[in-house]
């Protein structure tokens, strides 16, 4: 049967009568056949799925031991404090994921029938690129579906989600059982194979035919033709480097402790090998940009971006937002006209080592509880506003203790901190939210950072080959962590003696790598999922700090109420009720 596709502008819809809602104008009603001669219409199916890619900053950190929020009705706060059920599930990605797969499967079923351009070479290249994007995006959505919904059934099976790789019509059978976790991972990797086959590593204009990648030369040797399709105008679309990054994410997930199972044969070395390809592409273990850890506040770098270029730290990002102060309005302290939404915990602050590289509880650290922020990892000052720290366009000192009497003080008002800390990461310090002199700036939201890929290699390589093992590569987990810590300014005066201590002990190196991941990717929506795939304690009490009688004292801020089965998120209860072949994960009935 013909499937009618309604392409209606949402703004226009808001002004239509009830009759118009159900009787669209004829020119707005198109069938799938019309995509063959209307490439823009056909590409619209693909573009729709770009718009629903999960946000990089989803604030799930506030459901972990890293942060809380001062908005007591927040969904993630409810998740962390006992209200998470299969019916109330802010983690649910089911409808978004399968809705996007519907579009992508329709596109893949029909793209080769579309007249993409009048010139045959251009048409072939467009079809190749767009199919590559579609395969890559299908893998992306499957990755998030598996990450968010895979788990153990009541019978102990390790299950993924239903595999849907063909276009479904209204007459299709939607009562499909969940595939095995292994089969889901394999499908993701197969789609990424296709994406890499069809796509260039990155999109760049070329100046001579020798620069055309080998796989495209059988289609064209024309410089203009190649650049028209695979050049700068296509930047920030899915490419082969992004495909490799999702391969690294997928294989890391598959090798993690939470998914170790007799039916799962994916190994740590697979994740290490994929991440190593990305590191080699970047230039090696020491190729991370010196300012990559402050990517969000590299002001001149951000303001100078053009032609879809990425900063050196970024593999993939969203488009530039100009005249923007959203993050600052949400998260700056109230004295700087922000709402202080995310409050880092003392737990996270304690995870930052000293500048000599030692954890603060190590006998050689030199940590002093009277001056707890002195001689600490410089990332602490970059990422977190602590008592007395300078912040904002005028480097204003922020005082957070209850005795300070400021609007920024602990629990002073609804927008004040609950922990004694405010989040500084993600914010540009040259944005001014004062309503009398507002100054917003340009920003981008990342999707994949190179540092994440380096940390993926470090974790996987340590598990596969030990701290100093290299497999078939020129660098080890130790080499990567040393590079990341040196960039942060750690261990520069003592050759990072603590890292040297860890490199002879795989277990100690594991803890160090996990801690570096916690710090480097803090407030970037990783901790919630990392704790689960590592099978670590989800119920660490979220602590804060106050200055009482001249002494800093830890305070309890929020207790967590996770159950053991919550290592895995649920299948939406609505799906369980509709389809009897879909099994729920253990514990969520």
TrEMBL record:
SUPFAM superfamilies: TPR-like. InterPro entries: SusD-like_N, SusD_RagB_dom, TPR-like_helical_dom_sf. Residues 312-588 form the RagB/SusD domain. It is found in: Cell outer membrane. Residues 63-205 form the SusD-like N-terminal domain. It comes from the Bacteria. Keywords: Cell outer membrane, Membrane, Signal. Pfam families: SusD-like_3 (PF14322), SusD_RagB (PF07980). Its main location: membrane. Belongs to the SusD family. This is RagB/SusD family nutrient uptake outer membrane protein.
